[in-house]
Amino acid sequence: ELLCCYDCSMQRVAATTLRAATTLEAATTLRAATTLRTSRRGQSSTAAAPLRYFSAWFCPFAHRATLALEHHRQAVPYEWEESLGWEQRAPTGDEDFEATERSDWWYHWKSPALLAANPKGMVPTLLDPATNRAVTESIVCIQFIDELAAANGSTAPPLLPTDPFERAAARVAAEQVNKSVTSGYYQALVRTDAAERADGFAKVLDGLRAFTRESRGHFWGGDSLGLVDCVLLPYAYRLYALEHYRGFAVPASGEGGVWERYQAWLSRATSLPYVAPTLPERERYLRHVAKYAEGKARSKVGNAVRRGAAAHDYDDTLDDDAAHAQGVK
Description:
Elements: H1 2-41, E1 51-55, H2 60-71, E2 78-82, E3 84-87, E4 106-110, H3 112-117, E5 125-128, E6 133-136, H4 138-151, H5 164-190, H6 194-214, H7 227-237, H8 240-246, H9 258-270, H10 282-293, E7 297-298, H11 300-306, H12 321-325
């Protein structure tokens, strides 16, 4: 019993140390990001208080909102708050499995400010400090930023078309990207069965083909970045992770020029002056996403995909990391 108490005590110390380290890393990232965003805030044409932007450097969902904010940076001031990290947690004694089964599991650390703004603890979350009203969900955030920018007199091209029919078509295409490329990415990365991984990557390729064939210019909707591009780009850029961990590579050419056009779009998009600085460093991201590839990440998306659901169909209750810490499968 004394040994057991000692082990539990040491586990609690280790968990506390990990949380402190995670908090320090998040704080360091936040200070750097806030300095960058504050310097840009002076370029804004509006006197409105900056939005509080709860985000995470590694999250492709949040990256979508970052692209929209940077596209409209002169009209929508914001301050980045790094709000997610990773921590290991000591067993509570209530689990229905052995502690050794989860000794290398990683859970999301979520900042108190994020949880106050969005109790679900998901990024991106945008908060108006004047009213405490929050906007969540990545695709919704893109549209909100575009509408706010228009109201603030943005001179940047809109992310959504002005024609109602074309706006509707863009929303449909964005959702198709979310269901095919986003969910296929996590299926290929997280699932353990080789056939299921291959099926996930096939969904990714189908989504990229559809995106490329529907594009009507340098970008999906014409000659400037738009909603559909913002939804796809964070995942298109990170597909090197599937090649690294699963051996799945997007073709460079073939199928009547489809892959040449896709690769040209990817190069064009990632080279935009306001996009390039938002791209996570490759080796750092690979270290982060290893937690998913090795089955150690206990996030809502990771939990959903492990139980066989699509990433876009995660359940806030069923796939909550706290539920999985108690052994919910």
